Fold:
Amino acid sequence: MARVDGVNPSEVDSYTKHVFDAQEREWGAPLLNHLLYARRPTIFRGVRGMWTGIETSGLIDARLQALINRRVASINGCEF
Structure:
């Protein structure tokens, strides 16, 4: 459980709503860390820019990226 409440997904700007809708289709709900980032739209856009850059760079295979994300989540005690 997060120590800081995230945003209400129905009360965000159109860009953030678009990202949350895509996450809901992919994962069943918006990702908790993104709900927190969205408390500050500039931070949210920066984080999304970082992930978009990683995904489109082609430097890290998508399957390896998924494994890395799960490993980091495991190290941090996240149930991802």
